[in-house]
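Q: Here's a chain of 455 amino acids. Please give me its 3D structure as tokens.
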Amino acid sequence: MRITRTVAGRSRKAAVLVTTGLTASALLLTGCSSDSDSSDTSSDANGKITLTVADYGQFGYKEAGLFAKYHELHPNITVKEDTTAEEKNYYPKLLQQLNSGSGLADVQGLEVGRIKEVVDTKADQFADLSKVIDVNDWVSWKEKQATTSDGKVIGAGTDIGPMSLCYNTELFKKAGLPTDRKEVAAKFSGGWEDYLRLGEEYKKNAPAGTYFMDSASAMFNAVVSSNAKQYYDESGKAIYKDSPSVKQGWELSAEAADKKLTQGLAQFGDPWKAALRKGTMATVVCPAWMAAQISLAAGDDNKGKWDITTAPGDTASNWGGSFLGVPKSGKNVDEAGKLVKWLTAPEQQAAVFKATGLFPSNKGAYDLADVKTGKLPYFNDAPIGEIYADEAKSIPETVLGPKDAAIKDSISTQINNMEQRGTDPDKAWDAATTRTARNPAPSVHSGTASQAARV
């Protein structure tokens, strides 16, 4: 999630990667556009063009030096970024601008939790990028999320959030559990039910004041995200009340809360950050962008105490991700399209990954050295480039709905109530579904932390 990538908000500090191979400058020079300026361009008397990019949380372009590099490659173009800290504040403003037809940037960031709604209701206000990018360059399911029924592509994929599991090796060792990545993965190879069984093992010998997981709502999202059908069916009908994946996630969350396996902390909040610093949680569901949030919150004192392994079960899942779209109303539509193409090319996505840890959605980046050999020193040199690339290639195409984010947030709120207040699961479920039915509007979105500010 940008943290919130989600959301709950997105941090501006990046995870530090160790990589080998191509230099950043070599990466950035590759794939640059040499196209001449189009007639659909607004420039000043000196032929200078300013392109504006509106986004939320952390997309990583500034950290990777990409806007400055684009200016070097195109001296007549300056790129200015307008960043909103949290996606939940960014999206309502974007809708207002789209409705009024004014105030839009040349390039707008779009969160995956919102993309279906934008595709269904606002696609006619975005330029068709199907002739600008080759959708086959992305993992198969990514660009389909931003494609209309008639084949119009309104967004080029930026990062994604393939799932893993982050775990505190020091706490695992004290509880008598294995710490080797493969051995840990073997303990829950059967799926999320095995994950809870491991939690019960942990609890038997857990250090005082510690918990197996930070949040059952995070586990719920991971469970649901590993299934093709989640909150909607292919016809656009909301099925969250009867969805097998939602039911499984809810029941596992209720079990985790009942057995006191979770600390019950909403992710990205101050209590959650404090718990990471104090080392009171043993595992955190870990989409690609989450590592940066853990290392930031846990601090230098906990470096080397964490590691990363594959997520439970054999079904890959995705949590988070964003797109870049080009509003039709812009004065520099053609140049904005060229910028989007360049920013989402393999070399630039690899540079963002190296600078911030946000994982590429463009498949071409997976064979570049900065991704393929990427490791995180904070997490015992976990080979995240390898782990996430394997996950990304096998994530199923999911059915998205216009209110996915709002439904997820309503359910997550009630899971937190089960954890923190001991709310009866049946009453919590009724509250979640009643609220969603009455008020499905996505005014508050706690997507990813990658945008964690971002979903």
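Q: Can you summarize the key feature?
A: The chain has 18 helices and eleven strands.
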